Amino acid sequence: MACRHGFIECITEMKHSGELAKYGLAAINCMLDVCGKDQGLGHDIGCTSRKTVASSSISTKAQEPNLIIAINAFHGYAHNRRCQLAHHPLYLEGFGIEDLKTCEQIFSSSNCACGLIQHASYFYWIQYLDLHFDQWDKDKYLELSNFLHNNYVQALRIIDEYTPLLNEFKTHKSLTDDAFLQWREDESEFLTNLALEPPSDAIAVAYIEELENSSVQS
Ligand SMILES: [Zn+2]
Ligand SMILES: [Zn+2]
């Protein structure tokens, strides 16, 4: 787990078991202890881990400090639109231009360490990984001002470029900001209802079936 600036918060060793929910829960538990209230957490299976957290022993601990579990920016495209409407960082307040993919960058760097430590003893394996992540944090710290400045400039550019276009669109279509929020709710409601067959369709199909039955009998 890492913070939005790329610093590593916690690492779990899971050499034999594969990815189990308990590791995610332990990481969330650790984050709540260290970081406290009002945290936003991005997880690549955030929609599932929300339910796991809610039914786990840390559910009350996670509810009280107002923890938000979101999905990362690419998950919505791979899963479904309803999941995206509910949990995508673009639609949640407070996530800014964050894509929640920081861990992918960390894995990409730590993959390079594999060749050096795959035949090492357990002690050197841990020691080398510790060195690697320690250096990673130092590099991130060195880059921090630049990182914050670049993000700030990027956010300002987005606001500068898109605000006039958006205002023009709103005037042209006579829309307010509330309409955009309403669209998201409408779309979510539409997709939820789509899971059930509309009564008018069910009646039409039943009618055709009855017609076919009566034509067979006559
Ligand atoms: Zn940070
Ligand atoms: Zn999902």
Q: Bin the helical content.
A: 55-70%
What is the number of helices? 9
Number of structural domains:
1
| Distinct small molecules bound, one entry per kind | zinc ion
Broad shape: extended
Residues in β-strands, percent: under 5%
Q: What's the N-to-C terminus distance?
A: 71 Å
Average predicted confidence as pLDDT: 89
Oligomer: single chain
What's the helix-strand series?
HEHHEHHHHHH
User: Strand sequence of the main sheet, in spatial order?
Assistant: 1-2
- Low-confidence segments, given as residue ranges, are none
Report on this structure.
67% of the residues lie in helices and 4% in strands. It starts with 20 loop residues before the first helix and ends with a helix. It has a two-stranded parallel sheet. It has one domain. It has helices spanning 21-35, 46-54, 59-63, 75-78, 81-87, 102-117, 122-173, 177-194, 199-217, and strands at residues 40-43, 68-71. By secondary structure, it is mainly α. 11% of the residues are buried.
What's the short story on this structure?
The chain has 218 residues and is mainly alpha-helical. The protein is 67% helix and 4% strand. It has one domain.
